[in-house]
Amino acid sequence: MAGGITRSSLPSSLREGLVLPSDPGYGQLRHTYSYRGSPAAVLHPRTAGAVVDALSYAAASALPLSVRSGGHGISSASTNDGGIVLDLSAMNAVEVLDPGTGRVRIGAGARWGDAARALSPAGLAVSSGDSGDVGVGGLATAGGIGLMGRKHGLTIDSMAAATIVTADGAVRTASAAENPDLFWAVRGAGANFGIVTEFEFTAAKVPGVISTTVQYDTSDTTGFLQRWGDAVEAAPREMTAFLYLFAGSTAGMASIVYAGLDADAARRALAPFLALAPLLGGQSQAMPYAELVASPHAAHTGAVSLQTRSGLAVHLDAPIAVRLAGMVASGTAATLQIRAVGGRINDVDAGATAYAHRHQNFSIFVGADPAHRGELWREWDGLHPHLDGLYLSFEMDKDPRRLADAFPTATLARLRDLKAVYDPAGLFNTNFPLRA
Ligand SMILES: Cc1cc2nc3c(=O)[nH]c(=O)nc-3n(C[C@H](O)[C@H](O)[C@H](O)COP(=O)(O)OP(=O)(O)OC[C@H]3O[C@@H](n4cnc5c(N)ncnc54)[C@H](O)[C@@H]3O)c2cc1C
Fold first, then answer.
1. Average confidence score pLDDT of the chain
2. In the predicted model, is pLDDT for residue 1 greater than 70?
3. 20 to 30 A Cα–Cα from 175, which one of 1, 44, 264, 286?
4. Ligand 1 test: best mutation among 42, 55, 78, 152, most atoms within 8 Å of CB?
């Protein structure tokens, strides 16, 4: 049916942004960060009304539909073969609504790095993730584990409202005052409920950050991981630390971020981290948060084809550290990444948002070359009993049991009831469908 999509067959709101396989820009749009695709058409709506038009056009064409904000999806491919990609990148406005309260509006198609840059002159920031190229829509509908998370919470914890186009073609506001059930669901399971076109957040006042990168000799990987875990848990909540290990290398990399510019306090908070293992290098620098998460807008080639598994943990204790160290040593895991959660994230009641994991301290991500997929899945099965929950954004296992990891029983039941109300026919079922 690819031949069926023509400019003249589209509603007028979508004609301008149509990109077909024969168009020169198609090569830059067909793939995403992790997936290769060959869609029949890429649409670029500019308004919520155009998103509604696109939904009804896609329904009438009966073609697969992918929703794309920044194209960095891991748990879901925001491209397809022969279908329609609804690319929200033109809906990327960032507006400071009230510098006093920090209320800001951010289009779902913005990249987090660009949003940070736009908020910086007002001294405001929303904690997002470690990559500024990640899109606002995909991250803010799932959680948002960021480099200021322990101080300022998950991205969804700053959300005040979302504008969402639901399966019936309605444009709804979801907030504490309007459609509160949808607001609850969007904050952790948003991809199942519609297409968010813009968000309002209460941004934090962030004068800057002190960012430290450290290279450790991680030859004693098991011991190092346990010491790392203890240091992260003991750190003041201004400090959020992410760790990256790579197969075939005993040089581990850490990004340790102090949210604020108090150099003495940052130095004190950093000291325990510098005693964890022999240091191979490192540097500290005060900078605007926007510089930490700058967005290079790297071209998407679909070339990053890692197979990923993920889970949350309360502590990095021996059973976890031994298994993770083993995966890196054997080469099963090409990369191991451990992001700190906890702090302010865990102040939120577990029932307050669809993302319900409010007592864990670590988000663990392992990426393997596709050739090692089988080993990774087997070894992850051995680790699974020691984990406690799952952040879906880093997970590629499509087994429906992952939903039970991601959502506690009562949360999942409530989400399924709401899915039956807002998306009974399963239009938004490409990203861990709640009702398959
Ligand atoms: C290099 C890299 C680093 C990362 N680091 C972090 C990190 O530090 N912390 C963290 O929390 N996550 C991180 N992630 C995971 C990231 O948050 C998710 O992959 C997220 O889904 C990407 O958002 P996107 O808009 O770029 O994705 P896209 O590929 O555009 O979308 C992915 C999926 O999200 C859903 N979606 C996208 N936009 C919308 C929308 N507007 N409305 C409803 N549903 C939508 C759709 O199901 C879509 O298929 C990282 C990912 C990568 C690739």
1. 97
2. no
3. 44
4. 78
Q: Could you please report the per-residue DSSP string of 313-352?
A: ES---HHHHHHHHHHHHHTS-SEEEEEE--GGGGGS-TTS
| Probe residue for ligand 1, chosen from 68, 92, 306 as the CB with the greatest number of ligand atoms within 8 Å | 68
Residue 424 lies in a domain: no
Which residues contact ligand 1 via a Cβ below 6 A?
32-33, 66-74, 76, 78, 88, 108, 129-131, 134-135, 137-139, 141-146, 190-191, 195-196, 339, 393, 430-431
CA 104 to chain centre: 20
Tokens of 285: 């620098």
Site to substitute for ligand 1 among 43, 47, 67, most atoms within 8 A of C-beta: 67
Strands 159-165 and 195-202: antiparallel
Q: To which H or E segment does residue 253 belong? A: strand 251-259
Indicate which CATH number applies to the domain containing 98: 3.30.465.10
Sequence-distant (6+) residues with CB within 8 A of 114 are 92, 94, 132, 295
pLDDT in tens, 332-363: 999 999 999 999 999 999 999 999 999 999 99
254 and 396 belong to one structural domain: yes
Placement of tokens 């290098």 in the chain: 281
CA of 290 to the centre of ligand 1 (A): 19
Residue nearest to atom 36 of ligand 1 (CA): 138
Split into its structural domains, the chain has a count of: 3
Residues 6+ apart with CB under 8 A from 210: 257, 258, 260, 261, 263, 266, 284, 285, 286, 287
Mean pLDDT of 165-177: 98
Do 173 and 246 belong to one domain?
Answer: no
- DSSP percent split of the chain into helix, strand, coil, nearest 5: 35, 25, 40
**pLDDT tens, position by position, 255-269:** 999 999 999 999 999
88-103 pLDDT, tens digit per residue, is 999 999 999 999 999 9
